[in-house]
User: Which sequence fits this backbone?
């Protein structure tokens, strides 16, 4: 599942569908909360895994651009420049694989933030349902 699919699902799940049966909607809230907490946990785990992969990739690129990689690596992907230690960061940070890995992490962080806000909305939905029930009771004169 990706962020766009999540957005479609949230748009379908969050609105209160049955104004006449608010008690059922209130109970449905717990199902929604569990569902989106599960998504959030899965994306957080993916994010932590991606951050670990990024660190390994960064080390590999540091060795590669610093001239410390195995000779087999240079045979398949030659790099003939002598890079100063002070310039290593420039080469590493502009490497396509590093940039792609950073984009993946940013995407996962954005997805987790989105899910955190969805969870807040679900909690807000519970408050809205509670107020609607109170309003219905007040209108009925009870």
Assistant:
């Amino acid at each position: 599942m990706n962020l766009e699919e999540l957005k479609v699902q949230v748009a379908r799940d969050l609105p209160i569908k049955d104004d006449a049966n608010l008690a059922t909607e209130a109970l449905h809230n717990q199902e929604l909360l569990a569902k989106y907490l599960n998504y959030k946990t899965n994306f957080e785990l993916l994010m932590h895994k991606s951050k670990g992969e990024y660190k390994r990739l960064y080390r590999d690129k540091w060795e590669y651009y610093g001239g410390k990689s195995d000779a087999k690596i240079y045979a398949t992907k030659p790099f003939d420049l002598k890079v100063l230690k002070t310039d290593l960061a420039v080469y590493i940070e502009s490497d396509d694989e590093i940039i792609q890995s950073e984009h993946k992490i940013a995407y996962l962080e954005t997805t987790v933030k989105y899910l955190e806000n969805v969870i807040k909305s679900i909690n807000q939905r519970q408050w809205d349902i509670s107020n609607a029930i109170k309003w219905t009771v007040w209108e009925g004169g009870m």
In short: Residues 96-140 form the longest helix (45 residues). The mean pLDDT is 91. The two ends are 46 Å apart (CA to CA). Helices lie at 3-13, 22-65, 71-76, 88-93, 96-140.
